[in-house]
Amino acid sequence: MARPPRPRQPRKRTAPAAPAAPAQRIQKVLAASGVGSRREVERWIREGRLLIDGAVPDLGHKLRPEDRVTLDGRPVRVRAPEGQTPRVLLYNRSPGEALDLKAATSRAAERFNLRRASGRWLAIQPLPPVDGGLEVLTDDGEWAHRVSRGAHALTVDYVLRMRGPLTEAAVEEFRAATDCEGEPMSILEAAAQFGEGANHWLNVTVRATRSALVRHWWAARGMIVSRLMRVRFGPVHLTRELPRGHSRAMTPAERHALDNEVEAALARPHGPRDPEESSSSLR
Asked: What is the pLDDT of residues 68-110, one digit of tens each?
C-alpha cells in the first residue's frame, strides 16, 4: 500500500538583511568616536598621519565599516553609529593635577577613576593645571565640539582664595573690569568673604572669561590667588557629594539643561565664536 505523500513544509522566509549604515565623512565619524575634533582629523589627513587601508584619504572621504583606520601607524577604534551610548562625566580635579587625557588607555582612565572610553576622553573648556574644580569630560567628540562652540555664552562660577590686602574697593573695581592684558573680561558678580588673617575668599561669576585672566588681574594689583576652583559650568554644579579625584556620570537632566543653554547660544544672531577658538577649547 502506497504511503500518502508527506505534506510539504512551508519554506522559511529569510529575514531581510538590515540596511547597511550609510557611509559618513571620516571627520564626523572620528569626532563622534572621541578620537579627535574635526579640525584635528583634517590636520592629521593633511600631514599624512591618518591612513585608511594604508593610504591617505581625501578630506571628503566617507568611511565604511570595513575600512581599516590607523593614526601614526596605530589602529584607531571607530565606534559604531549605534549600540554604544556616548558618556559625559563630571570630574572634580584637584588644583595642580595635570589632566592629560589624549591617550585613551586603561592606565590613564584608572588614574582619574574613569572607565575606559570607547575612543578617548575629551575635556570641555579645561582649566589650567594650576586651577581645579569641575571638569566636564566626554567620549563623544561631536557633542564636545557643539558644546565648546556655545560655551562662550555660559556663565561660570569660580571660588578664589585670596592672599593679600583685599578691600571692598578692590572688589568693586574688579566687578567693573572689562579687560586684562588686552583680552576682554565679563565679570557678572563678585562677592568677598573677608577673613581675619591674610586669606580671604571671593566668589566670582563670569562669562567668556578664562580663569587665567582672573588670576592676572588680581596679581597686577598685588593680590595672590593661592587657589581657584570652578564650581559651576553653565547649569551644571559641583556639589559636595563629588569628592576630589572622583567622577560621576552627568545626569540626563543636567545634560538636557546644558544642551538647552548651548543651543540657545548658538541660535543667537551673532552666533558662536570663531571655529578656530572653539576647537582649541577641547583637550
From this structure: 999 998 888 776 555 456 689 999 999 988 776 764 445 556 6
CATH 3.10.350.10 fits 88-152+238-279, yes or no: no
Measured distance CA(115)–CA(111) in Å, rounded: 10
Average pLDDT over all residues of the chain: 82
Q: What three-state secondary structure class fits 135? A: strand
Beta strands in the chain (DSSP E): 24-25, 50-52, 62-63, 69-71, 74-75, 88-93, 122-124, 132-138, 155-163, 179-180, 183-184, 187-193, 199-207, 224-233, 236-237, 247-249
Could you give the dihedral angle defined by the CA atoms of residues 49, 53, 57 and 62, in that order, rounded to the nearest 10 degrees? Answer: -130
C-alpha span between 263 and 177 (Å, rounded): 28
Which among 155, 136, 156 is positioned nearest to 146, based on CA atoms? Answer: 136
Place of cell 576682554: 184
Domain 24-75 has CATH 3.10.290.10: yes
Residue 40 in contact with residue 279, Cβ under 8 Å?
Answer: yes
Contact between residue 167 and residue 200 where contact means Cβ atoms under 8 Å apart: no
In Å, the largest CA–CA distance within the chain is 116
Note the pLDDT tens digit of each residue in 149-198.
899 899 999 999 998 888 999 999 999 999 998 899 999 999 998 877 78
Are 124 and 144 within 8 A, CB to CB?
yes
pLDDT per residue as tens digits for the range 14-58:
545 444 556 788 888 887 776 777 888 899 999 999 999 999 998
Determine the Cα–Cα distance for residues 40 and 35; give it in Å rounded to an integer: 9
Where are the chain's structural domains? 24-75, 88-152+238-279, 155-233
Class in CATH terms, 155-233: alpha beta
Of the chain, the percentage scoring pLDDT greater than 90 comes to 46
